[in-house]
Amino acid sequence: FHNAKCILPAPYTKLSQYLHPCDMCASHSAIKLPLILNSTNFCHSQLCPPSPVCPLVSAGRVLCQLFPCGSEEVDEAMQSAQTAYLKWRKMAGMERARVMLEAARIIRERRENIARLEVINNGKSVTEALVDIDVAWQSIEYYAGLARTLSGQHVQLPGGAFAYTIREPLGVCVGIGAFNYPFQIAVTKSAPALACGNAMVFKPSPMTPVTAVILAEIYKEAGVPDGLFCVVQGGAETGTLLCHHPMAAKVSFTGSVPTGKKIMEMSAKGVKQVTLELGGKSPLIIFKDCELENAVKGALMANFLTQGQVCCNGTRVFVQKEIMPQFLEEVVKRTKAIAVGDPLLDGTRMGALISKPQLDKALQYVSQAKAEGGKVLCGGDPFVPSDPKLKGGYFMSPCVLDNCRDDMTCVKEEIFGPVMSVMPFDTEEEVIRRANNTTYGLASGVFTRDISRAHRVAENLEAGTCYINNYNISPVEMPFGGYKNSGFGRENGQVTIEYYSQLKTVVVEMGNVESLF
Length: 517
Ligand SMILES: NC(=O)c1ccc[n+]([C@@H]2O[C@H](COP(=O)([O-])OP(=O)(O)OC[C@H]3O[C@@H](n4cnc5c(N)ncnc54)[C@H](O)[C@@H]3O)[C@@H](O)[C@H]2O)c1
Prior knowledge:
Layout: E1 19-21, E2 29-32, E3 46-47, H1 71-88, H2 93-109, H3 111-122, H4 126-149, E4 154-156, E5 162-169, E6 172-176, H5 182-195, E7 199-203, H6 211-222, E8 229-231, H7 236-244, E9 248-254, H8 257-269, E10 273-277, E11 283-286, H9 292-301, E12 316-320, H10 324-336, H11 356-371, E13 375-378, E14 399-402, H12 409-412, E15 419-425, H13 428-435, E16 443-447, H14 451-460, E17 465-468, E18 487-488, H15 496-499, E19 501-508
Parallel strand pairs: 6-7, 6-9, 7-8, 9-10, 11-12, 11-16, 12-15, 14-15, 16-17
Antiparallel strand pairs: 1-2, 2-3, 4-5, 5-19, 10-18, 13-14
Helix pairs in contact: 2-4, 2-6, 3-4, 4-5, 9-10
Pathway: Amine and polyamine biosynthesis; carnitine biosynthesis
InterPro entries: Ald_DH/histidinol_DH (IPR016161), Ald_DH_C (IPR016163), Ald_DH_CS_CYS (IPR016160), Ald_DH_CS_GLU (IPR029510), Ald_DH_N (IPR016162), Aldehyde_DH_dom (IPR015590)
Keywords: Cytoplasm, NAD, Oxidoreductase
């Protein structure tokens, strides 16, 4: 098993082939994946099927050792995707839509199972994982709808001549994903890619290798040509091989800013198109005229989903001075009440962070904040659930930091853990200047009852998204992406079609050629 080779492109192998009795948990069988592949560091190739009592979940154990895809496997995946692409691109949008709708239907039908696997894969609560899976099938449905409507333009020219445009696919697109929304990111990239007639080779994060494979199986079951959506496993080296591969027409990347810069550099060498969905340190501005209860709920949504590991989180919370005491009292009360623990239980609202290094990093930010003058109002410690089976897990109690200043490390840098930094402000002009004083520009939010102020603030914030009187809602119809170092290109919404297609102009002469020579 440990030496097994990765053969993910067609002919595709089913996960269920790898069901074996679980060594660690007597009560179920485990899935052993010979196809997932990172050498020693991370996780999960031996997974128990969904069960609320499985001791493997979030317990911080190395479940198995995995092997990264090398150049041979990457090339095999790219070739296989290219072959599939040549078939898929010839199908009419209506035909592609039919297959995609079937994939969406299968996901909807198996939402609970996929959500539970996502919990094991990632550590987030099952309540959140269910939302992720729902967003995923909605995304495929949405782009299936757009696949049916793809069309060009007709342009009249002098003398009866005319031109028309054809929206064509790019070819084989590479998708590289982050660990925080493993299934959803795989879908967010592949749904518009496939709708436009492309193929995709996708590399999930080595921390969360499993559910992208489930997606590949579902696409196959729905009827896409063999190899149209291939999954290769591995870390930076495998990602590098993908970005440099001559057959890659585009790279769509979700991850951190430092990696994003490398992806852009590698893609530039091959003049490949790039979409970069990168990190953030987004501001959430709460004015004194807000509906306070909604603002508090918004601040929690802006900070604690997926254990705080969300790119667009509003982690710099600016609160107008006059309401600071009430805001803090309420936000701390609710933060303390967040149920942390076994992510497979329905009542849990916060599961485990992705890894020990990620947990240590978040805790370190809290220590540094204290050293720099911040005050911990609650949380910020490792959390040990009462269930002995979960003892080794990477749990952390959600943290609210008061007394923060703009120059503190916890306010300037992306923590990617459950840490909210709160800062007071006086005026609108001041808070906009401070909110924009960052190299990031992914999202932002404002709570106020003043309608003019809300739109004025939205206009002046330098961010790809601004939420008014809510935070972190991401319907698939809504374009999403960054300003400044948070990246470029968009995902979701109609506009994404433009990032997965190219326009051909065909010019038709109806008369004689008027030659200058
Ligand atoms: N803007 C968005 O939509 C969005 C969404 C989710 C996460 N994120 C960001 O992602 C980051 C957290 O995710 P992460 O820790 O997985 O990010 P990361 O940059 O460490 O890794 C992301 C992916 O890139 C791969 N990779 C790493 N080095 C590479 C290289 N040299 N060449 C090619 N691929 C390489 C990784 O294996 C992984 O699949 C945060 O900064 C977060 O804000 C952004």
